[in-house]
Amino acid sequence: MKKRITQDDYIKANRKASREAEIEMYGHPIYHTRVHQSKKVYNRKKIKATDKKLPLSSCTSRQNVIQSVPVLRLLNQ
To answer: Domain limits of the chain?
Structure first.
């Protein structure tokens, strides 16, 4: 018996080939149904991550400020 290629088989093979070509082109699969997130939306997690990258973020805590006050007084004298 000859095996016939059904429409479902054709669609499945086409999707697989398209996905493999996409991975080869971009290095990873691309999401086509992902919702675009607006930059204007408040995102606490992203804000905290950028604050950690700042060089003075460790000096802004209250304990570090209290400890650095005597050092600043000695430097100003």
So the answer is: 1-31
CB 57 within 8 A of CB 51: yes
CB 59 within 8 A of CB 68: yes
Residues 6+ apart with CB under 8 A from 52: none
CB 31 within 8 A of CB 23: no
Return per-residue pLDDT of the chain as tens, 77 residues. 668 889 999 999 999 999 999 999 999 988 888 888 888 888 888 888 888 887 765 555 555 555 555 555 555 55
Tell the residue number behind the tokens 């209290």, with chain if given.
66
| Cβ neighbours of residue 14 closer than 8 Å, sequence gap 6 or more | none
